[in-house]
Write a structure and sequence with these properties.
Layout (H helix, E strand, L loop, with lengths): L13 E4 L6 E3 H13 L5 E12 L5 E16 L2 E13 L8 E4 H6 L3 E5 L2 E5 L20 E2 L5 E2 L18
Parallel strand pairs: 1-6, 2-5
Antiparallel strand pairs: 3-4, 4-5, 7-8, 9-10
Length: 172
């Protein structure tokens, strides 16, 4: 049984986490992924990391990652059959052993991910070699974001110089 609510019950799943720069998976969660892969004729590969990393913000203290796993995952795309692809993640022990499988920001950026948060149709798209085009409707407001030192995406809120005061009822 999964101990967190960041995973689908009884199904392996990855949490798309813009707050984590790297891919992670807790040791306990990895065991479930290994069993699921084995049941479907696939094998997880493990290797030692050159240097261990410590991940903070996952409970008391830090989770230590000394291994990296290459995990076969089967992903169902909207308009094509499922595909088995490798998910390469740092394995968290200690306080992080119950972490879900986390797809980090660096992996999403490497694939030029687009996240769409439309009610009833939330999805992540990985554009093909031709990239993508988006046509925004009139009145669209696009806010540039920056990465904080921890890798979390943030909206700068300090540009008061020359800012205009508007009566906008759509508060954050």
């Amino acid at each position: 049984e999964y101990k967190t609510r960041t995973q689908l019950p009884d199904r392996p799943s990855m949490l798309a986490d813009l707050g984590s720069r790297i891919n992670l998976i807790g040791r306990s969660t990895l065991e479930k992924f290994i069993e699921h892969a084995r049941q479907h004729g696939h094998k997880v590969e493990m290797k030692a990391r050159e240097r261990p990393i410590k991940v903070h913000g996952v409970g008391q203290g830090a989770a230590v990652c000394t291994k990296q796993a290459t995990i076969p995952v089967a992903v169902k795309y909207k308009d094509r059959p499922s595909q088995v692809q490798p998910f390469i993640a740092n394995v968290a022990d200690g306080h992080g052993s119950d972490l879900p499988a986390i797809l980090g920001k660096d992996s999403m950026e490497a694939r030029d991910a687009v996240i769409i948060l439309r009610d009833g149709n939330k999805c992540m798209a990985f554009p093909g070699l031709g990239g993508y085009r988006t046509e925004w409707s009139a009145g669209t407001k696009i806010i540039p974001m920056e990465s904080s030192p921890s890798g979390h995406l943030v909206i700068p809120c300090d540009t008061f110089d020359k800012a205009e005061v508007v009566n906008d009822t759509n508060a954050f």
